[in-house]
Amino acid sequence: MSAILEIRDLRKVYDGGFEALKGVTLDIEEGEILALLGPNGAGKTTLISTLCGITEPTSGTATVAGYDIKTQYREARKLIGLVPQEINLEPFSYVETNLHFSRGIFGKPRDTAKVEEVLRKLALWEKRSNRVRELSGGMKRRVLIGKALAHEPRVLFLDEPTAGVDVSLRKEMWDVVAELKKQGVTIILTTHYIEEAEAMADRVAVIRGGEILMVEKTGDLMRRLGRKELTVELREPLAEIPAPLAEYDLELSADGLSLTYRYDTQADRTGIAGLMRAFSEAGIILRDLHTSQSSLEEIFVGLVEGEGEAQ
């Protein structure tokens, strides 16, 4: 799979000296979903705005399907669809008109069938003659997505696309994104809903302070940085951790009825076999045991707080 978006040492310095992007280098493959995660002020929106031609980079280069975003910006921009965070629709405009207008902006001929296809895909067809002001917040965000798709882009930027959308509509939008991926559209997603990245993204890029900390396949990131916990439920409560178990990193619950053991999933030895022998030697009878693994949200929090390192 080849890269459709190639970013090299991209920098953005605003008047006053604030450096919003500090040499971002990143390849985004055609047809993939990349989740761009980072805290507020990390540089996510600045990076998207720069790639979409809304703001100009101070230095560095970026190409979309080989077109330079500065020297060939018209060709590059035609290949990009953008769904911004803010709902910036004309309240008295009609839903269908918004999509026709977007096609025209990008030099696409009027195509009633294509607009209908997009509206149906987003469950907006029945609302096509409504004014924007008559729609719910979730429906307005669908119109934004429709506008971004109307000119048939190859790369789609979704900047917090489900902000303010209820759970059911959010899941429907996940289905829309999955369908776009099947059609070969490359999607770059920024979100504060970590479960979106975990559920949809092929890869995760973590940005902090204008720098990319790491880029990794979602599953690999979970396996590499995720920690597992083994919780052992006891038949009888313990007042303290017995001596035979002292060498293990165990945490006793407040009621004394369970012990938690944390271990690295990538370690050569987890230590679980030895722990089980130690329980037997100490005469402790187990009632049950189960494991759990760190979520991507926990991993992300660790990274942005500086606990994880890119490798």
TrEMBL record:
Transmembrane segments: none annotated. The keyword ATP-binding applies. It comes from the Bacteria. PROSITE patterns: ABC_TRANSPORTER_1 (PS00211), ABC_TRANSPORTER_2 (PS50893). The keyword ATP-binding applies. InterPro entries: AAA+_ATPase, ABC_transporter-like_ATP-bd, ABC_transporter-like_CS, ABC_transporter_ATP-binding, P-loop_NTPase. One of its GO terms (molecular function) is ATP binding. It holds the Pfam family ABC_tran. Residues 5-234 form the ABC transporter domain. Keywords: ATP-binding, Nucleotide-binding, Transport. PANTHER family: ABC TRANSPORTER ATP-BINDING PROTEIN. This is Putative ABC transporter ATP-binding protein YbhF. It comes from Pseudooceanicola marinus. The lineage of its organism: Bacteria, Pseudomonadati, Pseudomonadota, Alphaproteobacteria, Rhodobacterales. The gene is ybhF_1.
